[in-house]
Amino acid sequence: MSYAVKEMFLTLQGEGVNAGRRAVFVRFAGCNLWSGREQDRASAICQFCDTDFVGTDGEGGGRFADAPALAAAAADFWGPDHAERFCVLTGGEPMLQIDDALVDALHAEGFVIAMESNGTLPAHPGIDWVCISPKAGSEVVQRRGDELKLVWPQPGSDLDTLEGWDFANLLIQPLDTGDAAGNAASEAAAIAVVMDRPRWRLTLQVHKRLGLR
Ligand SMILES: C[S@@+](CC[C@H](N)C(=O)[O-])C[C@H]1O[C@@H](n2cnc3c(N)ncnc32)[C@H](O)[C@@H]1O
Ligand SMILES: Nc1nc2[nH]cc(C(=O)O)c2c(=O)[nH]1
Ligand code: SF4
Ligand SMILES: [Mg+2]
Q: Would you say 90 is a known binding-site residue?
């Protein structure tokens, strides 16, 4: 199978339990909860997306003919050292494209594989770190994993229900509204959740604060 990748880059994981870790990001093109076109945003299931995942024209992006080609490109971004190789598969919705061949090829290059998914498709069992970020109004089938990362506030999502799922870490991530006042309100709302429910921890998108990708 070939893979449509919007962009690929080396950075720090900015979110979640692995925040601060050196990582190659592979951003797959396409999502099942929004077309990615601004004119469709208001009618999409997921309306707050902060990401351009349309097409394959980003830096490091392209159509990769097969899994070894994609994995070799990720290894090039990491560099020759094999120690601690870590990649994050995101998008868009990465589970639309991740398959056995890709997981095997990334493992063969020595990568620990993390994934950021909306959970509407089952996670590939070979993924080493599964992060699920549920979206209100979607049917989440992947109800177990390493971290559940809820963007907040999110009308229609129920914290009690999510606490019943099988995740090792429960994280609240303030909604990036695109403006300072909105972001301050999101942060206050997220802090209030943690103060009220000690099972949850605050996670911030630190790459945005640091000016990283
Ligand atoms: C762009 S998504 C791609 C992966 C997958 N489609 C998903 O939604 O989990 C990556 C992460 O960014 C989060 N995210 C998207 N838009 C956001 C926003 N405006 N504010 C905060 N987090 C956001 C998502 O919830 C997800 O955890
Ligand atoms: N640095 C950095 N960390 C991230 N963690 C999750 C991201 C994503 O868009 O999936 C992301 C991203 O876009 N950049
Ligand atoms: S599910 Fe993820 S990639 Fe798709 S629109 Fe929502 S945040 Fe963006
Ligand atoms: Mg992002």
A: yes
Q: What is the ipTM of this complex?
A: 0.99
CATH number of 3-210: 3.20.20.70
Among 7, 15, 116, 147, the one annotated catalytic: 116
Tell me the DSSP string of 44-88: SS--------SSS-STT-EEESSHHHHHHHHHHHH-S--TT-EEE
Is 82 part of the annotated catalytic residue set? no
Q: Helices 67-78 & 100-108, crossing angle to 10 degrees?
A: 40
Domain boundaries, the chain: 3-210
Residues facing residue 179 across a β-bridge: none
pLDDT in tens, 143-152: 999 999 999 9
Stated pTM of the model: 0.99
- Nearest alpha-carbon partner for 41 in 58, 28, 54: 54
